[in-house]
Amino acid sequence: MPIIVNLDVMLAKRKMQSKELAEKIDLSLANLSILKTGKAKAIRFSTLEAICKELDCQPGDILEFQQD
């Protein structure tokens, strides 16, 4: 898939665990895991906004386009 999800990188930079982020943005840990592993087919803008607010980052810090 040409869209790479760097959520694990941002979590490491912010020294935050997935469980903590999931609780703060009111998302199940299972859904956050699906997003983290790149298996998600879509992401709501509201979810992306909540992630960016909590991690103090931009959407481009989390999502990356990579040519095949």
UniProtKB/TrEMBL annotation:
Domain of life according to the entry: Bacteria
Listed name of the protein: Transcriptional regulator
SUPFAM superfamilies: lambda repressor-like DNA-binding domains
Pfam families: HTH_26 (PF13443)
Domain HTH cro/C1-type: 13-62
PROSITE patterns: HTH_CROC1
GO MF entries: DNA binding
